[in-house]
Structure formats: C-alpha cells, structure tokens
Amino acid sequence: MVEELEAKPVDTTLFKQFVGSLRFICNSRPDISYGVGLISKFMHNPRSQYMTATKHILRYLKGTSDFGLLLPKGDEQSEAVHEAFSDLDWCGDEVERNSTFEYLFKYLNAPISCNVAALLSYEAEYIAPAEATSQSLWLESMLE
C-alpha cells in the first residue's frame, strides 16, 4: 500500500477513457477481460503502474489485432444450437481469496455472451449460477 501511494498519479480522465474503451473492446476480445477488470478497480485513484498495465493491454491488442470473436453467417443448412458452459474456481484468487465464476454462451458455434466474475465463496455458489441461468433465459427469449 505504501508503494501505491509513492507512485506518481496520472491524469484521471485519460485513464478512465482508456479503461472505458478497453471495457467496450472486451465484448469481442474476452481474452483481456481479466486484466481490464483488474485495472478497473483503480479508476478512482489511478497511479503510474496502473497506466503502465493499461498500456501493456493496448500493446497486446495491437500485436493481436487479427484475434477476436466473429459471428458466422447462418444458412438454411446449419442447425441453430444454443450451448452454455460454466466453470467455478473455488478460492482461486490467491490475493483476495475470492472464487472465480465464468460462463460462456454459444450460438451457431460462435460465442455470443461471456462473463468472468471474482466473487466471495457464497456468491460464487449461489448468486453466479442464478445470474448464468437468468442470462440463458434472456438469450433464449431473444433467439425466439
């Protein structure tokens, strides 16, 4: 905590613009979701090391610009299948001792919705599966 206070503060507006843009990009690049979630915690008091981490994510995106999620074009032959996957890592976050819950929904074999959340143990056990079920029901109603 002392090292954090000694670090040089950065422009809050610029940092928030970077983080907001990265959070939007997470829709098509879920591989950066965890890192963006971490830097999002420090938007109220950004320091130089968080801006450095943000720039690392931007450099990663520049180097992997051909990656991303694309939805396939549906045709008469393809079967419209809605799939859901979920995973729970019990107390996997060694720093804060939180559990990590993830889910992924696919339609026509393409990812259309995903979420990764670090939660308290009881939240991961009860709230996260309820959220995934709610998301699944909403997607089914949208697809109808």
- Give the biggest sheet: 3 strands, antiparallel
**Spatial extent as radius of gyration:** 18 Å
What characteristic shape results from the CA principal axes?
Answer: globular
State the total count of DSSP E strands: 3
Number of domains: 2
Helix-strand topology string: HHHHEEEH
The helix fraction, in percent, is: 40-55%
The residue ranges in which pLDDT falls below 50 over 5 or more consecutive positions are none
Alpha-beta classification? alpha+beta
Proportion of strand residues:
15-25%
- Helical segment tally? 5
- In order across it, which strands form the biggest sheet? 1-2-3
Distance between the termini: 51 Å
Mean pLDDT: 79
Structural features, described:
With 144 residues, the chain is of the alpha+beta class. The chain has two domains: 2-63, no CATH class; 82-143, no CATH class. Helices cover 46% and strands 19% of the residues. The protein contains five helices and three strands, in the order H-H-H-H-E-E-E-H. The chain has a three-stranded antiparallel sheet with strand order 1-2-3, with helices on one face. Strand 2 (99-107) and strand 3 (110-119) form a beta hairpin. The model has no long low-confidence stretch (mean pLDDT 79).
